[in-house]
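for ur thesis appendix - Cardiolipin synthase. copy paste whatever u need, i formatted it the way the template wanted (i think)
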Amino acid sequence: MEEILTRWLGQTAAIRTDLIAAFGLAVSLCVSIHVLLRKRVVGAAMAWIGLVWLSPVFGTALYLTFGINRVERRARKLKRRPSLQYDETPQAPAAVPEAYAPLDRAVRAITGLPMVAGTGITVFRNGDEAYPAMLAAIQQARRSVALSSFIFLDDEIGQTFIAALKEAVDRGCEVRVILDGIGSGYFFPAAWRRLRRLGVPAGLFMHSVLPWRMPFLNLRTHKKLLILDGCIAFTGGVNISDGNRVERKPSFPIRDTHFRIEGPVVEQLAQAFIVDWAFVSGEELEGAAWLPPLAPAGDITARVVTSGPDADIEKIATVVLQAIACARRSIRLTTPYFLPNDIIVGALCLAATRGIEVDVVIPRRSDHRIVDWATRAHIDPLLESGVRIWLDEPPFDHSKALSIDREWCFIGSANWDSRSFRLNFELNVEVYDAALARRLDTFIQGKCETRLTQADLAARSHPVRLRDAAVRLLLPYL
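the 3d part is after this line
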C-alpha cells in the first residue's frame, strides 16, 4: 500500500511539474508574441523576451506591470474626437525663411500643425521673474485658468498660487489644474489635496498606488503650462516650488527659464491642455472661455510640438533630429540632463564632423547624481567627433533650450534624455525668430564656463569609470 501511494504521489508530482512547464511555455510564448508585435525598440524587445523565457512567472508579472503602454490606446481614442483634432484649427500657415522651408515641411508632417504668425514671446529668468508675472496674469483672468505642472509643492509659493487659483474660482473663472501623480508628491500630493479642499477642480495625472495602473517612474506629464482666458500662456522649465526663487537663497537653488506667449499659437497650447484634461478627468473643455478668437500679438512665427508615449511618440526627438540635419553654421543647446539615444548622438557627431559648431552645456552637478555619472560614460563619441561639451557651474540650472544658426530655436519642457524624448508627456514650442534665437544662443554661450575634455574623462579612476558605465545601462529609464 505504501509503495502504491508513493508511486501515485510521484506520478502526481510529475504531472504537476509537466503542467507548470506547459503553463510557463504558453505564457512565455504569448508574451513573446505581444512583445514582437508591440515593441518598436529592438533592445527592449530582446530584453523582455529574454526575461520571460528565463523566468516565465516573474518576467510576465514585470511585463504586465511595466511593459505594456496602457496610455497609448486611451490617448489615441481621445485625440480622434473631432473637438480635439489639432489639424482642424482655423489658423493660417505662416511663411518661414526659404532656408528653413524643408524643416517647416518636415515638422508640419510630424505634428499636423501649421506654423502660426503673430506670436509675442517674453523671457523670464528663474521663478523670481516668472512667478510674479504668472500670478498677475491669474489675477487678471476673467474667463478661464488652465494650469499644468510636473512639480507643484505645498510650500510658500505653492500656497500663493493655490490662493490665486481659489480667488479666480470665486470671481467666476473656470479653473482646471493638472498635477503629475509623482512629481507633485508621489503618495502624498499635498498641493492637490489643498486645491480639492478649497473647491478648485484639480486632477492627478496617472496617479495610483496600484502598480498595474501607474508605472511609478514612467509616463509622467512633464509639461509646465499656464493659460489664461485662452489668450495668454506661460511655458518653459519652471515648476512651482520655493527652490526656484533663487534670490531668496533656498538650500538648493534651481535656476530656470520660462516664457510668456501671446497670439494665435496659444490655441495650440490650449488644445494640448484640453487633451490632457480630458485624459485626467474625462471632461471635454469647449467654448470661447478656452478657445477664443485670437488676434496677432507680435511678429514671431511659432508652432507647438507635443510628445509622449501615445500617438505623439518621439515627435520632439524627431523634430530635434530634423533641426540638427538642417543646421548650417551652429548648434547650441543647454539641458539639465543629457542622455540622448544613439541616433541623436550620431546626428550631433555628424554635424560636428561636417564643420558645424556644436556646443552642449550641462550642469557640473545636477539634482540627480546618477544621471551625472551616466552622462560621463555616454559622451565620449561626441568629444571624439569635435562636439564641445561645457560644464555649467552651480547653482543648478534647469533650463532647456536649443538654438540653430542663431535663427531658429526650440523651447519648452523636454530634457535631452530618453525619459523626455520617449517616456514623458512633453511640450515644446518651435520658434522662427532671429532675435529670440540670438538671445538664447548668447545665453547658452555665456554658460560655456568649463570645457569637458577626453582627458578629463580618462582621468577618472577605474572604479569611477566602472560605476559610470554600469549606471549608463539604465539609460532608457534615467
